Amino acid sequence: MISVNDVHKSYTKNKETIKGVSFEVKDGMIFGLLGPNGAGKTTLMQMISTLLSPSSGSITIDGLNAKDNLLDIHKRIGYLTTEVRLDPMSTPDKLWDFFGELYAIPREESASRKKEIFCKLGIMPFKDKRINELSTGMKQKASIAISLIHNPPVIIFDEPTNGLDILTSKQVTDYLIELKNEGHSIILSTHIFSVAESLCDEIAILVDGKIVAQGDVDSLVKQTEAKNFEEAFFKIYVEHHVEE
Amino acid sequence: MSKNKGQAITKNMIWKSGRGGTQICGTTFLLALGFVWTVIVCMYAAVLYYFGFNDYTFTSKYVIVVNAPDSFIAYEDLNPYEESLIFYEEWDAPFDFMKMSEFMHEHAAGLTVVFPDDFDDQIKSGSIPEVLTYYRTDTLGYKDLKDSFNDNYLDGYKAYLADIFNLSAQSDAWAVTNDGIPTNGDLSGVMLFAQAMGRSFLPILLFIVLLYAAMSNGTEAISGQKERGTFSRILLTPVSRRDIIQSFTNGVFISASIPAFIIIALALLIPVYRHASGIIPLILLTLSLSLFISALTVMISVMNDSVSSAQTAFLPVFFILVSVAVTCINGGSDPEQFYYFIPVYGQFYGLGDAFNGSPNLSGALVCSAITAALALAVIEISTKILSNEKFTTTASSEDEDKGTEPTVFSSFIDSVIGMFDVIFFPLFILSVFQILAMIPVAVVYTRDPLYSDFIAGLADVGTVGDIMRKAMEIISIFMNDSRFLALMSLSYILIIIACMYKSRGAANVGLIRKDFGKLYGKGLIVGSALMTLVFILLLITRHVTVEGFGFPSSKALLFLFSVIMWVPQGAAEEVMFRGYMIPRVKSLFKKNARAGRIAAIVISSVLFSVSHAFNGGFNIIALINIFLFAVLFALIYERTGSIALTCAAHTMWNLFQGNVFGLSVSGNDAVPSIIATNYTGSDFGPEGTLEATAVITAALVLFVVMSRRRSSSPKKS
After folding, report:
1. Which of B8, B225, B397 sits opposite A101 (nearest CB)?
2. For residues B237 and B422, what is the distance between their CA atoms, to the nearest angstrom?
3. Is B390 touching A (CB cutoff 8 A)?
4. Which of B53, B127, B282, B497 is the most buried (most CB within 10 A)?
């Protein structure tokens, strides 16, 4: 379970990137963050993952905060963004073993888990190829696999289906649903409405560092009296965005 | 799960080679190692063969006397050397330590005493002749043999000499020198030189290798990972920040220590540097220095976002440590005691003393402990830095609101890095190949009696400047050796290939196929015409008078070799300073093409000029002349886009100067020439005279005017 309480973040003195955000993600739930570029999605996810710390407010994961239990949180979260890349000269197989050691997963357990996840995501055929020889989709799948190496209860994925073709995208979303059903709590950010619609149990729309609307797809559509989710998003965005 | 402390990071670092941003450092580093290996192997092969003596199990008491004067033989008849045998040998070259070693091999002797040819005459005339001693170094017993021979036997000889030559009237001369016949200290000139090397060259080599290896691995480690975006994933593993820093430091430490210990092992193969008492200080000092440098590089790596910025930030550290080393060399071999306890100074002096068999164990212990403590403090600081989010996340592309680094700064850093590559690569390979070509000739050279004076001078070599001057002196002498000329020709060809390889193709170093023959032909005319003009001016100003024509047929081969050598020599310098350097400097100024052009011409010309500064007789006029010469050639290169013309002109300029007019070429004395001349100008040769300034300036003005006219005429029409 993740809870975010009135979090603010500013990089420079007089400008806030995140202006007071609160939400909660329960176990076995997929929470979607939707918003235009520069709304602060990545900053928010970096704060939840402990890479950044909030200027004020608090974030707890299963009741733990980053200040006192940093390494325990690290054991509990799987994090993936476009900024987190894999060593281009290594292979998925070697990287798995490397991170398996850093997460101190026993050797046999790591090997069986590797086989399971690599099969599920279809990584097996290219597991010994160098990362820089892989296609975007393959890289993304390898990246997802390695983010989940320690079977984390909390999953934070930034644009997991970005740049993937329909087939790969389906493979990934199916796997996310499977994880949700196993009881993981998942935070997703995405641009793709269909993904948000089909996957997320709850969606928060982030504009200029604030959550301006929150709820499941149906309630958001109803709230704005729109025909579909896409239209609902645009209505909400136009209503709240202030040109500077 | 609590056991994990990030050892995987260390393992991963050691087994991985540098890549991406550090590839250049990697190749340069490998080249340097290869070079060091070659030099050490050559030294080892030569020194061990003659000084090894591993085939004896007893301590020999035999003594060889080379060029024994009549008085000595008479003395020995009267007072036979009690302890054992004396053998007599004759050899012209007193400094030919290899021949002396052969004598010692032959007679299973432990000591060789070499008298000058005219010893008796020198004694009669009242001067003090120099007597050399060579002794084996495999056990310290031979030093005792030498001392006892000197004290017990030669002292008697001294008294005998005073007696038979009736020197009582001049006994002052003997009294002053105290022990009568001065021997050249405890060691031969070569051994002194080897010890000086052990105190300067070996420690500085270790310093540079440690710094280089730590820099290429350390800057790659964290800042490289940040640059590639792979670092945050490591930060998110349940490994504490301290363990992350510690394991990266361990990785750098181990990968930097390996080459350092390879060099130590290689050095210990040479008997002069092999001392059991030195091993522990060597290990302690090297390990502590390596740890300290590794901790520093990791700290710098933590603070930077990219490999190139980390390397730039590391450069001051590099230069500070190297200049400490250089001050140590210039400080002499007997520093104040407290230096042995200060980090870095202690390492430098301690390493030198350990190689020379006089280690300071307490100094090494204290110094290593202090250095290691400093390293731990640096690791602590790095951990603190890594806990600050400013240094953990790289600027994300999505959140534009973040205060990103100004781009101007990073491009400035790129220029600095690029500049080092441009400037040091040519000079580096030039010096490597020149030294390699010298090795075989140098070995031959010690066997020649003609050069005893030069070798005797090596004993006085103390500072870096002295070494430079001696090296240049050697090159001047070697220019008269066809073997050296042949090897240098080969080296120049290798330099051209190295530059071509680095620039990916001949066209990228200005060797353009189009019009090559035509331009080369023009260059032949330009080069010979310019030099002929200088020669005519020198004749008019009476700095040169013609004395004769032709050279002995015995020198024909040498003449041929030097003529052949000028072709790759000219081409190699043109490739390095024009074809390789100019486009690279220009590319650093992407935005301002005009500034780039000017900078390229000025920088390459200044470097070309400065690279001649160590030649004999270099003066300010030579500096200006060579600079102007380089500017002219750079402009020609710019104009034609090819170095064909300047290659030929360069070759002809040197060829006419040295082999036609018999003048010295950039301070290097001329080889056989067609015209024999008597020259009374600057020591540097015509290039150091105002006459050359006049000719080059005129050529420069003419070229600029002509190219202006040519470039403006098509516009009008």
Report:
1. B8
2. 41
3. no
4. B282
